[in-house]
Amino acid sequence: MARPLPPGVSQRDFSEALTQFAAAVGKEWVFSSDDDVDLYRDAYSPFWNEAEERIPSAAVAPDRVEQVQQIVRIAGKYRIPLWTISTGKNLGYGGSAPNITGSVVLDLKRMNRILEVNEKNHYALVEPGVSYFDLYRHIQEKGLKLWIDPPDPGWGSLIGNALERGGGYTPMRDHFDAHCGMEIVLASGEVVRTGMGALANARTWQQYKYGFGPYLDGIFSQSNFGIVTKMGFWLYPQPEAYFSGTVMVPKHDDIHALVDTLALLLNAGVVQGTTSVLNTASFGPPDPELARIRVGSSTSDLERYMAQKGLGYWTVDLPFYGPAKVIAAQWEHAKEKFSTIPGVQFRDGASYRFPLSQAELEKIPNPVPLGIPSLTTFAIGGPFSQGHMWFSPIIPMTGDAVIEATRVFEQVYKDLGNPTGALPGLPIWSFFARAFVIIYFFPIEHDVEKNRRNREIFKRLVKVAADHGWGEYRTHTAFMDDIASVYSYNNRALWRLHETIKDALDPNGILAPGKNGVWPRRLRRTNA
Amino acid sequence: MKLTLPLTIVLVSMTLPVFAQDSTSAGAPAVYEKWCTPCHGGGEGKPGTISAAALYKGAKPAVLAERTDLTTDGIKTAVRKGMFIMPRFRKTEVTDADLQTIVVYLTRRR
Question: Which residue in A340, A351, A144 sits closest to A254, CA to CA?
Answer without folding.
Answer: A340
